[in-house]
């Protein structure tokens, strides 16, 4: 009888998990039958490089690994990583290998632009390739697990971590999430050159109130399902091996201990079958959230569906006691342990625990081929915001003055999360411009201003040695007989990323003073901005003819900008996050709902401010080229479709009306003006990249199906509702052509 029950339970479990690998199950059954409770709890413990104080006396990391108290560790130092793995395999009782994790966010040694930047390339294949290269490099140095991709939707540029994600759009964010998972994990997770993805931060972390990091999130389920959850779901469906819980609360319960989130949605609805790790210390932080003492919060997290505790030592310290007291069950511990062992199995670690350290493959790091891909992606990420009087591209002649505090630094162009970056192959903007023009032009440089003179920001940046006034005088002297000025301004790497929120997202006053002085020379000025977030640029947009957003472009940032400045690359990037006029407008995003009183300038009581319009400076999807494109009206093959299998083809003709060959990112949006819940004015559904020669015209056809009409209704069902829709096609989310269609039952 007992046996029958057991096999029934096993059957149900295997059905619930979908396709199982019987060989893996048998291997792990056998392994777990030999494990003590302490060893099982050890598998639930990640201590990143530190020394966990384990049950009673604190022990060093080596001893913790030997005793089986550690499942995973950080991969900062390849030699230490290799040693740790050897101890785990050779000196622990059962020889269970370690997961070696690292925050490889936009490259390991070859650093690509920050994620926000690469999302502006609208090139999923190149994005996948960058993820592939990161995995190729890191997996040769012992690393088998990336804490990436970060897929948090962000609508508030105050939040410093907007740099780490793909901007504000759920559809595009989902496409990138899939490309990243595919790039990291490849087709075979057990291959030595693939690593396991960890999708973070689950969930809604990007909606931290007022852009303050770690802050409260409070959101309706309808908003979660329609706008914030899709990229996590897409990553899960793409086969991501692990997820990381976020720091914030969801429905008042910290994500790390939120059973609805970690089990009902992630596992039951989305069928995710990997494991979930906490964010660094987030199990312990549940105490500060008001969820009880360490023992209580650890039990809560385990029961919610969290499998691994990163950095809090809460599982390893308290779960044994909770088991004795009946506060958690043996099955719950076994379940988490099994999921983690499965990940190790899938990575091939039990077959060859050392396959992720390979001196031969290490030699390929920073190879010319990788650096070339980084240069290409950095170039494609640059967004041309303004180019009046065709100041750009520049000629490689005469005298060019590179002026500004971002112009002669290599390090500050890398962006956030670049622990293992190497500056040798990088060039500053000044260095790269000099190299690219060779002896055809004279290139000079002056710093021009400090990065900031704000006391609190200075604490991030380091003390100033020269007042900006003096720097401006020197710069004007340097630029005196220059033909053109490239003003290199913005944020250094350390002003965005984790715990790097800003309340004012404009250029600091001293940098604006420099820009003003350069403007007053009457010379042509190109403003090149490096930043980790959208900035408020009204003042700059009003005064300057040429503005480029170059973000933090990684190792090849300097070269990539030089390529664009001189037209060796024609810019094609388009923004994935709205650039507001003012912080007071935040959150500002293109896929907003209509209100009952949509903005009207001529009526006093509509959705607006007294002192400013609702317009962004640059909308979502926006970006210019060195050529110009004209869009025809939309042509439909039919205006009415019916049923779930109906389709409508919508076509625009795009013409290159300028004088250069260029790429255009043609965007499809759909609006649903009548539905059972209020729907956004329009939502991105697809895009197409086309290359057009001067004078060339190309038809671009989007095939619309009911999949493009679906949304989550009040019951959280994914449905489309018959009725009228607006099909919008254009070069950005604002300047679109619109056609009405009808979709009947
Ligand atoms: C961050 C995560 C990161 C983790 C491990 C946390 O503070 O929120 O994004 O993966 O640290 O370094
Ligand atoms: C206001 C209410 C007011 C009503 C009647 C509305 O526009 O929102 O507060 O009571 O007018 O005057």
Please name the defining characteristics of this protein:
27 strands; alpha/beta; binds beta-D-glucopyranose; 745 residues; 23 helices; Immunoglobulin-like; six-stranded parallel sheet; six-stranded mixed sheet; globular
Protein model, in words:
This protein is 32% helix and 17% strand. It is built from 23 helices and 27 strands. The strands form seven sheets. The protein has a six-stranded parallel sheet. The chain is globular. About 1% of the residues have low confidence. The structure holds beta-D-glucopyranose (2 copies). One beta-D-glucopyranose (BGC) binds next to loops. InterPro entries: Cellulose_Degrad_GH3 (IPR051915), Fn3-like (IPR026891), GH (IPR017853), Glyco_hydro_3_C (IPR002772), Glyco_hydro_3_C_sf (IPR036881), Glyco_hydro_3_N (IPR001764), Glyco_hydro_3_N_sf (IPR036962), Ig-like_fold (IPR013783). It is an enzyme of class 3 (hydrolase). This is beta-glucosidase. Its EC number is 3.2.1.21.
Fourth-level CATH superfamily of the domain at 2-96 and 193-351: Glycoside hydrolase, family 3, N-terminal domain
Number of helices: 23
The percent range for strand residues is 15-25%
By CATH, the topology of the domain at 2-96 and 193-351 is TIM Barrel
Give the proportion of residues in helices. 25-40%
Low-confidence stretches: 8-17
CATH architecture of the domain at 2-96 and 193-351: Alpha-Beta Barrel
Structural class by secondary-structure content: alpha/beta
- How many beta-strand segments? 27
Q: Report the sheet with the most strands, covering strand number, pairing sense and barrel closure.
A: 6 strands, parallel
- Across the major sheet, the strand order is 2-3-4-5-6-9
Mean pLDDT: 95
Nearest-angstrom radius of gyration?
27 Å
Molecular shape: globular
Class of the domain at 2-96 and 193-351, according to the CATH hierarchy?
A: Alpha Beta
N/C terminus separation: 53 Å
- Each distinct ligand: beta-D-glucopyranose
Family: Belongs to the glycosyl hydrolase 3 family.
GO molecular function: beta-glucosidase activity
EC number: 3.2.1.21
InterPro entries: Cellulose_Degrad_GH3, Fn3-like, GH, Glyco_hydro_3_C, Glyco_hydro_3_C_sf, Glyco_hydro_3_N, Glyco_hydro_3_N_sf, Ig-like_fold
């Amino acid at each position: 009888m007992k046996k029958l029950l057991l096999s029934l339970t096993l059957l149900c479990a295997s059905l619930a998990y979908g396709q199982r690998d019987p060989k893996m199950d048998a291997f792990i059954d056998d392994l777990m039958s030999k494990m003590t409770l302490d060893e099982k709890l050890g598998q639930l413990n990640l201590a990143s490089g530190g020394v966990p104080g384990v049950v009673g006396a604190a022990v060093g990391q080596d001893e913790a690994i030997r005793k089986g108290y550690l499942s995973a560790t950080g991969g900062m130092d390849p030699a230490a990583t290799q040693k740790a793995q050897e101890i785990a395999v050779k000196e622990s009782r059962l020889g269970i290998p370690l997961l070696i994790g690292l925050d490889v966010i936009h490259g390991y040694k070859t650093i690509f632009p920050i994620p926000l930047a690469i999302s502006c390339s609208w090139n999923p294949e190149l994005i996948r390739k960058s993820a592939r290269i990161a995995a190729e490099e890191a997996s040769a140095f012992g690393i088998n697990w990336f804490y990436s991709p970060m897929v948090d939707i962000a609508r508030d540029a105050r939040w410093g971590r907007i740099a780490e994600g793909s901007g504000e759009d759920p559809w595009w964010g989902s496409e990138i999430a899939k490309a990243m998972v595919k790039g990291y994990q490849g087709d075979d997770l057990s291959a030595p050159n693939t690593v396991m993805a960890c999708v973070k931060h689950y969930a809604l972390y990007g909606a931290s109130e007022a852009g303050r990091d770690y802050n409260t999130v409070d959101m309706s389920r309808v908003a979660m399902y329609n706008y914030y959850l899709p990229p996590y779901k897409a990553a899960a469906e793409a086969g991501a091996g692990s997820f990381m819980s976020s720091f914030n609360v969801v429905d008042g319960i910290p994500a790390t201990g939120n059973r609805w989130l970690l089990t009902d949605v992630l596992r039951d609805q989305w069928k995710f079958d990997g494991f979930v790790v906490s964010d660094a210390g987030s199990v312990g932080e549940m105490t500060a959230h008001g969820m009880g003492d360490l023992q209580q919060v650890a039990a809560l997290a385990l029961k919610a569906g969290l499998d691994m505790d990163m950095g809090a030592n809460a599982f390893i310290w308290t779960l044994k006691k909770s088991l004795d007291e009946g506060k958690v069950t043996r099955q719950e511990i076994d379940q988490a342990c099994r999921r983690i062992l499965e990940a190790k199995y899938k990575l091939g670690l039990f077959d060859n625990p050392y396959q992720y350290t390979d001196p031969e493959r290490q030699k390929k790091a920073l190879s010319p081929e990788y650096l070339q891909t980084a240069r290409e992606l950095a170039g494609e990420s640059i967004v041309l915001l303004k180019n009046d009087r065709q100041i750009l591209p520049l000629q490689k002649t005469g005298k060019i003055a590179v002026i500004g505090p971002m112009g002669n630094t290599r390090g500050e162009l890398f962006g956030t999360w670049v622990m293992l970056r190497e500056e040798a192959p990088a060039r500053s903007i000044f260095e790269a411009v000099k190299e690219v023009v060779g002896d055809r032009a004279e290139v000079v440089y002056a710093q021009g201003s400090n990065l900031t003179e704000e006391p609190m920001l200075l604490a991030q940046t380091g003390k100033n040695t020269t007042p900006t006034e003096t720097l401006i005088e020197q710069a004007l002297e340097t630029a005196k007989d220059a033909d053109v000025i490239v003003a290199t301004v913005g944020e250094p790497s350390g002003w965005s990323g984790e715990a790097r929120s800003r309340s004012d997202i404009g250029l600091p006053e001293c940098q604006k003073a420099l820009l003003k002085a350069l403007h007053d020379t009457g010379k042509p000025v190109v403003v090149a901005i490096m930043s980790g977030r959208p900035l408020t640029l009204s003042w700059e947009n009003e005064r300057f003819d040429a503005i480029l957003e170059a973000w933090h472009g990684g190792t090849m940032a300097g070269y990539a900008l030089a390529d664009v400045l001189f037209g060796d690359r024609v810019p094609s990037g388009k923004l994935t996050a709205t650039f507001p006029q003012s912080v007071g407008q935040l959150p500002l995003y293109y896929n907003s709902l209509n209100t009952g009183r949509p903005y009207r300038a001529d009526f006093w009581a509509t959705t607006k401010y007294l002192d400013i319009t609702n317009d962004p400076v640059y909308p979502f999807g926006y970006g210019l080229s060195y050529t110009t494109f004209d869009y025809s009206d939309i042509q439909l093959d039919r205006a009415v479709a019916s049923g779930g299998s109906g389709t409508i083809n919508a076509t625009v003709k795009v013409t290159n009306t300028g004088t250069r060959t260029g790429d255009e990112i043609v965007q499809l949006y759909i609006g649903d003006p009548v539905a059972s819940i209020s729907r956004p004015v329009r939502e991105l559904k697809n895009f197409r990249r086309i290359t057009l020669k001067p004078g060339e015209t190309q038809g671009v056809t989007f095939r619309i199906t009911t999949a493009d009409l679906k949304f989550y209704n009040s019951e959280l069902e994914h449905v489309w509702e018959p009725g009228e829709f607006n099909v919008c096609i254009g070069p950005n989310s604002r300047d679109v052509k619109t056609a009405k269609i009808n979709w009947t039952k």
